[in-house]
């Protein structure tokens, strides 16, 4: 059986590096954000998709969670390599099984293989006496990806993922170093399996990180609506011309993006809020104020899942 708890590297959790939408424009090849969501200081991140790719979004957050989880479950090998079937990777991510999911996982791994992040003075390392050191770095997430297939159908399509497809995935050294020193946090896969959308799962993991930062209030969390939309990647392109987007890539820049309006952020988050309230993770999600000055006030509860769901995963 799949263990109940997965593992998240806490810098990636705090940086929230995935656009929250399940679908994005093919022109979304990069973004930049500077936002403050906690008392630790601002988060400044620039994301650049690889060649012929778009930026990580939606299900990519689940796949990243599966990668860090599997690295931890497999004993944190020094070479950073994860060895896993597509079937077991989906289990670690809390995803369903089937050809459509396997194809989405394949596409996601390609994005993680090619994406580059530039982090400015917000990659944290816990130091002595409870203090933190922050640094800047530029890094990817996956250093190498190898696919092996055994017992595939006669009409096997080159590069396609099946449940039995075996993967060898090597994580970036920065992620490995952070996990080895213990900068990690458990996430209940049982809860993830009960959440229906990538955005709800992104929201859940983001809130779990923020409520567990040293000195944070574990009972409630308040944030400005625009800052929250920025942090969760609820953004759209300002430049929509293909030639302009191509020009930004040639010059090593990222396209200009903008955060959704407060009303659109509210509508986008509404289903995720409803799900998290339904399972008991949130008691309430209230909007205080009007327009761009609105704040979101979360009160945390205690998850209460049906026994039929809990029994699916070993404790």
Chain-wise SSE layout:
Blueprint (H helix, E strand, L loop, with lengths): L4 E5 H6 L14 E6 L7 E6 L11 H14 L7 E5 H8 L5 H16 L1 E11 L5 E8 L2 E7 L17 E6 L1 H8 L3 E5 H5 L4 H15 L7 E5 H7 L3 E3 L4 H9 L6 E3 L2 H17 L3 E7 L6 E6 L6 H4 L5
Antiparallel strand pairs: 1-9, 2-3, 3-5, 4-8, 5-6, 7-8, 10-14, 11-12, 13-14
Helix pairs in contact: 2-3, 7-10
Output mean pLDDT: 89
**Element string (H = helix, E = strand):** EHEEHEHHEEEEHEHHEHEHEHEEH
Described by the principal axes of the CA atoms, the overall outline is: globular
Q: Could you list the spans in which at least 5 consecutive residues all have pLDDT below 50?
A: 307-315
Query: Helical region count?
Result: 11
Query: Strand portion, in percent?
Result: 25-35%
Number of strands: 14
What class do helices, strands and sheet pairing give? alpha+beta
Radius of gyration over all CA atoms, rounded: 19 Å
- Kindly report how far apart the N and C termini lie: 9 Å
User: What characterizes the major β-sheet?
Assistant: 4 strands, antiparallel
Helix content: 25-40%
Order the strands across the largest sheet as they lie in space: 2-3-5-6
């Amino acid at each position: 059986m799949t263990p109940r708890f997965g593992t998240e590297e806490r810098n990636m959790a705090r940086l929230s590096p995935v656009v929250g939408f399940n679908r994005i424009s093919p022109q979304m090849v990069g973004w930049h954000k500077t936002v403050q969501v906690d008392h630790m200081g601002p988060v400044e991140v620039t994301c650049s998709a690889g060649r012929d790719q778009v930026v990580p979004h939606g299900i990519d957050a689940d796949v990243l969670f599966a990668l860090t989880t599997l690295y931890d479950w497999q004993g944190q090998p020094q070479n950073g390599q994860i060895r896993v079937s597509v079937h077991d990777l989906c289990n670690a991510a809390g995803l369903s099984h089937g050809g459509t999911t396997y194809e989405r996982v394949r596409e996601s791994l390609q994005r993680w293989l090619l994406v580059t992040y530039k982090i400015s003075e917000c990659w944290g390392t816990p130091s002595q006496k409870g203090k933190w050191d922050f640094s800047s770095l530029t890094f990817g997430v996956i250093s190498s990806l190898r696919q092996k297939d055994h017992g595939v159908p006669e009409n096997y399509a080159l590069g396609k993922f099946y449940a039995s497809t075996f993967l060898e995935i090597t994580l970036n050294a920065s992620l490995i170093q952070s996990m080895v020193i213990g900068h990690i946090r458990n996430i209940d896969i049982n809860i993830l399996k009960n959440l229906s959308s990538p955005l709800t799962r992104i929201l859940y993991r983001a809130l779990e990180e923020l409520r567990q930062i040293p000195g944070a209030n574990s009972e409630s969390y308040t944030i400005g609506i625009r800052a929250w939309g920025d942090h969760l990647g609820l953004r759209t392109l300002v430049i929509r011309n293909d030639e302009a987007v191509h020009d930004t890539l040639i010059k090593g820049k990222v396209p200009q993006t903008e955060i959704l309006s407060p009303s659109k952020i509210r509508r986008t988050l509404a289903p995720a809020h409803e799900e998290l309230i339904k399972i008991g993770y949130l008691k309430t999600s209230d909007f205080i104020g009007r327009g761009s000055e609105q704040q979101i006030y979360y009160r945390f509860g205690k998850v209460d899942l049906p026994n039929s769901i809990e029994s699916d995963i070993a404790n």
